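Supplementary notes for students who missed Thursday's class. We covered one full example, reproduced here. Read the sequence, then the structure, then the short commentary at the end.
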Amino acid sequence: MNNNRTPLFLVALALGAALLGFAGGFAAQFTPLGRHATENQVHAYLLEHPEILPEAMEQLRKKDMAARLDPLHTEVKAAFPGAVLGNPNGKNVLVEFSDYACGYCRQSVADVDALIAADPELKVVIREYPILSPESASAARMALAAAEQGKFAGFHKAMFAAGRPSAATIAEAARQAGLDPERAAKFTASARVETEIAHNMSMAEALGINGTPSWVAGKNVLSGAIGAGGLADALAGTPPS
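Structure (token representation):
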């Protein structure tokens, strides 16, 4: 049997076994004849009840994501020093993989602000994930320089308010945040910044993240501008469907 088909076959077989009430001898169904008969029964049942497939696949997706997140859960919440919003010592942690060229990230700024206002224990870890343009990477480096100077929140909001990143908008956001330009220029060229961005890229790949904004909230990994309510639900352990 094709290796790509095997996991889906096993999921369908297990699901079908439960639904059809195969009480005993489940392992015996894996004889060639038994498996063929069972596969036909499962196939027929799924054709009659296709509505169960999205739910089953969503459960499979959640299990896969939980398995990806588990070994990285502590690491992904460990912020680059200063690259946080809200309460830096808060016990409730929301992680955002963000790109300053991302319109949905810009749209989500108000949602994050609302969550921070509602929960004094919320710590929002911003992971710079510049994947949309070369200017995204320049803005991400300057954001880390702002974090190093203790002025991350000011730069973060000014950068999104400025529109798409460019040399001019990055410089203006840095000015508004009050960055020391010489210190920032030196820091943006440092190996520390390159290492942090590479680290974020590596974590995103391991988590199956390939777009922005993406979020880690509790045991949930979510993507898109899902709104303050959806993020609050995820933090509370009940992610949106």
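Commentary. The first strand starts at residue 84 and ends at 86. The chain has two domains: 5-50, 74-235. If anything here is unclear, bring it to office hours.
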